[in-house]
Amino acid sequence: MPGIYNLSIDEAVKEAREVHALGVPSVILFGLPDKKDEVATGAWAENGIVQQATRAIKREVPGLVLMGDVCLCEYMSHGHCGIVKAAPQSLGAAVAAPPVATEYEIVNDASLELLAKTSVSLAKAGIDIIAPSDMMDGRVAAIRRGLDDAGLMNTPILSYAAKFASGFYGPFREAADSAPQFGDRRSYQMDGANIREAMREIEADVEEGADMIMVKPAMPYLDVIAAARERFDLPLAAYQVSGEYAMIEAAARNGWIERERVMMESLVSIRRAGASMILTYYAKDAARVLG
Q: Cα 54 to the chain's mean position, in Å?
């Protein structure tokens, strides 16, 4: 991903100053822990990397709105978004060996506890908006309860309400070292062919207490953004993901397209479809163009 880097905390503070000075209102933080384990300790630890970065950025750039991505994949040794256990090979049989591609399941309810715990930890560190991206069932309600029980009732939730099992995530997963070590995420991320399911998933998150909703990826799912805008009266975000960015950059470097023109055209298409917020790696470049 040309021009995009993993940052240390001090460099993240410098980046925060720059984007704030350009008029970008918010950034979203993802963490890369020193160590990974099977319960995503780095996600919810008081001194986790995102918690440290949040406190540092808030000290130096208090006017910048910080979103915290809440998912477990970057912190899990196996790269899945929830707790994994070996699935029985036959009815009543226990499997002692480590799970492999055809012999595992994601434990939804136990994962919700870690997601709520992570959300509370991030909010206490200073994150302004909690953004769960895991796609576990019931995660918004669990996070809302966790925040409320911790006295954080005013912390809003931006739910990745329609997150599709997409091939456009590849560059980010490589950069974050978060690709699954076995299997894939199609059992909990959404089928890209089914827009009706997307509407049901969004509606469920709204009923559970989401304050904002998001569609991810953006450009391959402009119709989903438009349908969500027509149906739901909440702030609507769209995520222009790493693969979308990388394609534009690669084509521009080969001289096949005009980089700035196509960059802005892609962002306008997302806005035109109905997104009121766009998460994009082009935020700084777009802010400079818009002046």
A: 16
| Among candidate residues 213, 203, 205, the one with its CA nearest the CA of residue 235 | 213
- Cα Rg for the chain, rounded, in angstroms? 19
Active site includes 216?
yes
pLDDT, one tens digit per residue, over 186-242 is: 556 788 999 999 999 999 999 999 999 999 999 999 999 999 999 999 999 999 999
Boundaries of every domain in the chain: 9-290
Of 36, 58, 117, 163, the active-site residue reads 163
Decide: 212 and 158 in contact? Cβ < 8 Å.
yes
Closest CA to 189 of 27, 39, 71: 71
Coil, strand, or helix at residue 142? helix
d(CA 36, CA 49): 12
Say if CB 250 and CB 263 are below 8 A apart. no
Euclidean distance between CA atoms 30 and 32, whole angstroms: 7
Extract the residue ranges of the chain whose pLDDT is less than 70. Answer: 87-102, 104, 173-188
Are 28 and 68 contacting, i.e. CB atoms less than 8 angstroms apart?
Answer: yes
Q: Over the stretch 69-87, which tens digit does the pLDDT of each residue have?
A: 998 888 887 777 778 877 6
Query: Of the listed 36, 58, 117, 216, which one is catalytic?
Result: 216
pTM recorded for the entire structure: 0.89
Helix, strand, coil percentages, rounded to 5, for the chain:
45, 15, 40
CATH number for domain 9-290, candidates 3.40.50.720, 3.10.450.50, 3.20.20.70, 3.40.50.300: 3.20.20.70
Beta strands 129-132 and 65-70 are parallel
HSE value, Cβ hemisphere, 13 Å, CA-based, for 32: 14
Instruction: Specify the pLDDT at position 84.
Output: 80
User: Helix, strand or coil for residue 144?
Assistant: helix
